Amino acid sequence: IVEWDITTSPFSSVFSRNITLPGGFTTASGISPLSNTLLIAVDSSVSPEEVVELDITTTVATMSTVFTLQTDRVALGNFLYTSSGKLLILNQDSMTSLYYLTQYDYTTNAIDLDIDLGSVVPTSIFECSCSIFVTDNNGDVYIVDSAPLYSLSFTDNFGIVPSSAAQANTCVICSLTDNGNLLTTTSTTTVA
Most buried pick, 9, 96, 173, 183, via CB within 10 A? Predict the structure, then answer.
């Protein structure tokens, strides 16, 4: 991993350090930060694949397993970690070739939802305005309905096929099970 210190406005980037990953570790699903020194990833070098945390406090990362994916499941594209502690992973069953969107509770490691994506061959996932979107191998974009059966509805075509997507975890505020159910608080100041 190459770490950079980035300023967004005006944009600048300064090299920070190189971080060595643990021997044997590989991922096809990206890496996402939980904090400045702790990353989450899917280790695709083992079977079944494992969700791991990478501690990058030093220049040599240490890895610890959080949980394993279901038997015969292979993670695809990127994943989303929400501010409510849910992990959404696109994956394929290597025995049946079916595609799924699986939502895990990161705290308990329990599977909340395991959604069969039907004929959609997913390549990436993203969240926008509390809606979860999946893109496919044709560049089509689908919104995941926010209620059971969590079906996919076509919304648009990107014109390209994104192989992955990335966004800050702090921007991913909704999971599939709390989509549209967020509480908002308003306050009123009264002058006496």
Answer: 173
Taking 3-state DSSP, the helix, strand and coil percentages for the chain, each rounded to the nearest 5, stand at 0, 50, 50
**Residue 2: strand pairing partners:** 18
Half-sphere exposure of 72 (CA within 13 A, CB side): 8
Tokens of 131: 């809606």
pLDDT for 190 equals: 46
Q: For residue range 142-152, what is the model confidence (pLDDT) as tens digits?
A: 999 988 889 99
What is d(CA 77, CA 69) in angstroms, rounded to the nearest whole number? Answer: 15
Q: Exposed (0-12), middle (13-18) or buried (19+): which is 52, by Cβ within 10 Å?
A: buried
Report how far residue 57's alpha carbon sits from residue 55's, in angstroms, rounded to the nearest whole number. 6
